[in-house]
Amino acid sequence: MATNVSNFSDLIQRVAASCLLHPLAAGGHESGDVDAVAHTVIEEYNNSSEDEEKENGVKDVEKSRRIRRVWNNGEKEMVTLIEEVFEAVAEMKKAYVRLQEAHCPWDPERMRGADMAVVGELRRLGVLRERFKRGRRGGCGGGVVAMLRVVVAPYEAAVEELKRELKVKEVEIENLKEKLNTVTCLSNGGKKRGLSKWKVGCSQVLAVAPDPELFEATMSQMKEASKSFTSLLLSLMREARWDVAAAVRSIEAATATPDTATQTTTITPSVAANHHAKYALESYVTRKFFQGFDHETFYMDGSLSSLLNPDQYRRECFTQYRDMKAMEPVELLGILPTCHFGKFCFKKYLAIVHPKMEESLFGDLEQRSQVMAGNHPRSQFYREFLRLAKAIWLLHLLAFSLDPSPSQFEASRGAEFHPHYMESVVKFSGGLVPAGQIVGFPVSPGFNLGNGSVVKARVYLAART
After folding, report:
1. Which of 253, 330, 439, 464 is deepest in the core (most CB within 10 A)?
2. Per the database record, which ranges form the GIL1/IRKI C-terminal domain (predicted)?
């Protein structure tokens, strides 16, 4: 460059000297001479510059050209990358909108497809991020890097959130596997302590075959669950300011048969309402639950497996009993909401809890709406209901596991008290039932077992009038 500057200065000096020696005149030939000199000098300068560039600047020129080519290629690649990022973002938004639309109305298939589309776009953004990182290491422009960071950051956060949710699901899966192992251990006769709060011995937990003693122990569990649910229902009725005495009279009338409806034996409403209304309410609940107990599916369908293949059906029932015994009903229905037990719960809830009753107790029909939609509410009331439903379902499975099956009986209203087949829900002083007591209304049924033993029917007694 210094040589070029020097040549250029020399050129100026030569042109100036030519002008001094040949002053401008009117004739064109003199001007032409000056032009010829200048032309000659400039041509020499250009030639010398080209020679200089060839000798000293070839390497720099080639380097500059290579840099320009690399930069152009990198710029094109970055522009393409940005376009792909924006395209992925647009598709991500569309997929997320479809995912939201699939929630209302509820459409599992559309939700699954939209969810896969969202995950696919997230993965696509992950690939673009890796390309961006490689380009960054190759020397991308700082402004482009900053812009891409802003665009990609929200989706990186979404990916991290999905990873955390995945870890939570993995923990849930491990818990379910542990519970499954527990059930398998129990079904194979493994030892497990502290699983029952009721008076059930280790023989029930480790039972390998159905027997009458196991049926009696399961019946005791059912009684405890029935008392617990009835107490909760009665407390809700009192909080809602129900006329409990009127409810008792209605239940008493419902238990009357055509033969006993004209009898003069009645229960004093004030006494029943004030002291023993819970027994009348328990009578109502158990009567609804035990309707259809003699059929293998509570008449939910027309199955006749117990008649066509009795031995196989008994084995299947006892297997179901052992598998279900250690599981919480909420967990079971969370996995299989529409299994036979789930359908049993739907049917019995709608039969026991009348719409007016639910609206009076809870102020709305939300739980009923969930049940009718095939779901299971998470309320305390429904949990207690499921506990009783499970106890009766287990009793039913065990009844169809025994050979011969237990025969069910119920004390009728107005019948004479028989201590061999009945037990009073009200305890009398001295433990003996006074003479002249008759059945006011039945509370829960009894069973005759194959070994000759009897599970007594529970009754509410009243004095003969």
Report:
1. 439
2. 409-460
